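Appendix B, example 12.
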Amino acid sequence: MAAFSRPGKPVGLDARYVGRLPCAVCGLRAMKLPGREGGVCIPCYAEERAAAGRRAASAGAWVAASFVGDPCLACGSRSVDANGWVFWCNSCQMQTAVALPPR
């Protein structure tokens, strides 16, 4: 289960595990970002956020935009990476924090 701070914001992954342990969802790629059930890879994170957005939209709630994806949603490059709480594209320099820095 992902760790949450007091205001309910997700907390980033410990740097010791980012890129080293397998994704908790697919098990194929390395974990890079915090997911619902643990560390997930970038494609699984993007799918989790899209599914959460669809659920919220169908319930009539506001949906937060997510710019995380592989390929990059801004420029289409596959040169993307994350450090456990920030996602970025090496080609267009777009970056976004998806969680609070780990403690």
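The chain is about 15% helix and 15% strand. The chain has a mean pLDDT of 92.
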